Amino acid sequence: MQAEVDRWISQFAEGYWEPLSMLARLTEEVGELAREINHRWGEKPKKPDEPEADLALEIADILFILACLANSQGIDLDQAFQDMMRKYRERDSERWTRIQGTSEE
Predict the structure, then answer these.
(1) Quick check: is 101 in a domain?
(2) pLDDT tens by residue, 26-44
């Protein structure tokens, strides 16, 4: 994912935005996802003429911005994800009730 995002961004002279601008963009995209979730499962129904958004695309927009931010900072998201999962496995392995027949990875 990061390589594909980098190929896309690298074709433009402007390149990656500054980190603060990407954070603002990330916040905007998370807000769009939150709005759709609130319309579907929250207390604020959509207006009758307002179309339903695609949740998968809203989440993908967030992933795109996160990949941009990571690329601009030289962060390998695959490695960061593995490190994060290791942290959760160590810290939270006994925190919740495990479903019978499942094992810790």
Answers:
(1) no
(2) 999 999 999 999 999 999 8
* Token digits of residue 88: 């959760």
Give Cα 46 to chain centroid, integer Å.
Answer: 24
Please name the helix (run of DSSP H) or strand (run of DSSP E) that holds residue 61, with its range, or none. helix 55-72
Is residue 105 pLDDT above 70, yes or no? no
Q: Is residue 83 part of a domain?
A: yes
Cα separation, 49 vs 11, whole angstroms: 38
105 in a domain, yes or no? Answer: no
Residue 50: both structure tokens together: 């307002």
CATH number of the domain bearing residue 84? 1.10.287.1080
Residues 6+ apart with CB under 8 A from 64: 5
* CA distance to 10, 56, 86, 91, 104, per residue, from 46 (Å): 38, 18, 40, 40, 41
pTM of the model: 0.86
